Structure formats: C-alpha cells, structure tokens
Amino acid sequence: MRLYSLSVLYKGDPKVHLLKAAYDVSTFNFFQRSSVQEFMTFTSQLITERSALGSRASVKEQEYLCHVYVRNDGLAGVVIADNEYPQRVCFTLLDKVLDEFSRQVSKMDWPSGSPATISYSALDGYLSKYQVRIPRS
C-alpha cells in the first residue's frame, strides 16, 4: 500500500491550476522520476477539471487509483495511490488537508497562486505520515 502524490488545486474559471503538491517517487527508477511526477501533476489537474464542484470520486488511471475531492469553493485535493490503499483513508486525508489549507492560505490567493507563491509546507509531512503501512481489516 503506497501513496505517490498529494496535491492541492484550485478549480477556477476557465481552468484548474496547481497550488501545492508533494510526491513520493522513490520507488521508481531514477531516470523515470521526473516523467512520473509530470504524469501525476497532469492527471491531478485533468481529474479535477472533469469533476463537479462539491464532488468526490475515485478514478483508475493505469495502475493507480486517483482520489479527488472538489469543494464547493473551488479548492480541490487529489491523492494518487496504489490500488490497495484504502479509499476511506484517502478521503479522510483530503478533508484534513483542504480544511487546514483553507485556514492557512487566504482565499484571495487561490485564483492566482502557484507552488512557488503559496506558502504551505504540510503536504510532505502528511504524505510521509500516511505512507505508514495500514493493517488490513
């Protein structure tokens, strides 16, 4: 069971853009890591773009499961995990991250923000904390 990516995005009009992201590509070959990371960023944006405001969904993309939660205010989160990672845990993580992000980052910064301009450093910590093996029930 593994998490590969945790992203916060803004679903604005007309397009979706990435606000902040954390990746764990350590299990991939060194030469594949940047292209895998680009794939995850692109997939996160695409899935958010195709999801309605106020919706949650899990989408299978190649050998990954992408869990997306788009809030009514346009703030969105995407977790990319393997097929074994529990869906419920992914959505709990997304709830927690989006609530915390919306408290720490002004809503005024969302439409024009980018990973370079948004200061929110908790994603790497959440990605490693939730990376812990979860016992199967």
TrEMBL record:
Longin domain residues: 8-127
Localization, UniProt: Endomembrane system
A Pfam family this chain is assigned to: Longin
GO cellular component terms listed in the entry, alphabetical order: Golgi apparatus
Family matches, as SUPFAM superfamilies: SNARE-like
InterPro entries, A to Z: Longin-like_dom_sf, Longin_dom
Coiled-coil segments on the chain, per record: none
Molecular function terms, GO-annotated: SNAP receptor activity
GO terms (BP aspect): endoplasmic reticulum to Golgi vesicle-mediated transport; protein transport
Keyword Methyltransferase in record: no
Family recorded in the similarity comment: Belongs to the synaptobrevin family.
Protein name: YKT6B protein
